[in-house]
Please model this.
Amino acid sequence: MMHKNDLRRFLQADDGYVPPLVADRNVYLPRRARVRQVVRENSLVRTLELVFEDQIHSSDFTYLPGQFMMLSLPHCGEAPISFSSSPTRPGGFSLSIRKAGKLTTAAQELRPGDMVGVRGPYGRPFPMADLRGRNLVFVAGGIGMAPLRSAILYCLDKGDEYGHITVLYGSKTPGEFCFMPDLTAWRQDERLTCLLTVDEGDDDWQGRVGLVTGLLDEVEMDGGRDRALVCGPGVMIRFVLERLAALGFQEDNMITTLERHMKCGVGICGHCHFENKMVCTDGPVFTRSELPDLRKL
Ligand SMILES: Cc1cc2nc3c(=O)[nH]c(=O)nc-3n(C[C@H](O)[C@H](O)[C@H](O)COP(=O)(O)OP(=O)(O)OC[C@H]3O[C@@H](n4cnc5c(N)ncnc54)[C@H](O)[C@@H]3O)c2cc1C
Ligand code: FES
Model:
C-alpha cells in the first residue's frame, strides 16, 4: 500500500488534468472529483461532498436516490458507495463512507481539496416517480440511512408531490447516528414523523432502546396504500420486511437495497450475482417480490 504521505501528495496534486470526452466510452475510467467538504458523522463514518471541476462533467451529471458511484483511491481500489445527497440540490453530490476495509479506511483521511476517482451513476434507483402521492415509511439501520437520506431529501424538496413521511432509524449506540443535523430538522418538521432507537443507550440517552422493528408498531401505516423503503444490515432488512408483511404491506409495496461485493459495477464481471440477478444493474434497489429468499440477505 502507498505510504500515507505519498498518498496525501498524490491526492493534493493538481496538474490541471481534465478527462477527455472519450473517457465516457470507457466504463472503467474514473472521472476526477474534488472533495469540497468532509463531515464527520461519527467515529467510523465520513460524508464527502464532491464536485466535478470541469464543465464537461459538472453540466451533464445527474443521478437519482438509490443509485451509487464507484469511488476509487490510488492503490486502494474501488468500492460502490450510494449517494447520500439528493439531485434536487445540484452543484455536487455526497457519499457517506463507513470504515470497513482498505478503501473505506483510506477515505477517512480525505481532506477538502483532495481529488478522488468516481464513475457512475450506476444501478436501478428508487422508483421516485411511482412513489408520488404515497405516504412513505423509511426504515434505516446504521449507514443504511445514506441512500434513504437521499430519497427523503428528494421528497421534501418536491413539496406536495409526496404524502406524509415517516422515518424510523436504529443505531447501535447514540453516538453512531449519522446526519444528526437532518435528524434534528426532521423531528421538528410537521411533514415528517421521525423516531430514533438505539440497541444500547448511555447516560445521556433519553430516547428509545430496542430494535428498529419495534418502532413499526408505534406509527400508523396503511400497508395497502403506503410504500416502505428499507436499508440496513441484511438481518435487519429481513426482520423489517417480515414485520411489514405482518402489518399488511403488499410485496410490491416494500422496497429495499442490497449490498454485494462488486468489481465492475456495470453488469459485466458477475461478482455481485444474487440468485438470478446482478445487484449492480438489476438493483441495488429491489421490491420484496423480487427477493424470494430473505434468509440469503
Ligand atoms: C450498491 C452498494 C452501495 C453501498 N453504499 C455504501 C455507502 O453508502 N456507504 C458505505 O459505507 N458503504 C456502502 N457500501 C458498502 C461498501 O461498498 C463496502 O464497505 C466497501 O466496498 C468496502 O471496501 P473496502 O476496500 O474498504 O473493504 P475491503 O478491503 O474490500 O474489505 C471489506 C470486507 O469485505 C471482505 N471482502 C472484500 N472483498 C470481498 C469479496 N470479493 N468477497 C467476499 N468478501 C470480500 C473483506 O475481507 C473485508 O472483511 C455499498 C455497497 C453496495 C454494493
Ligand atoms: S459488479 Fe460486475 S456484474 Fe455486478
In short: The first strand starts at residue 31 and ends at 40. Helices lie at 4-12, 55-60, 102-106, 145-157, 180-187, 212-215, 234-246, 279-282.
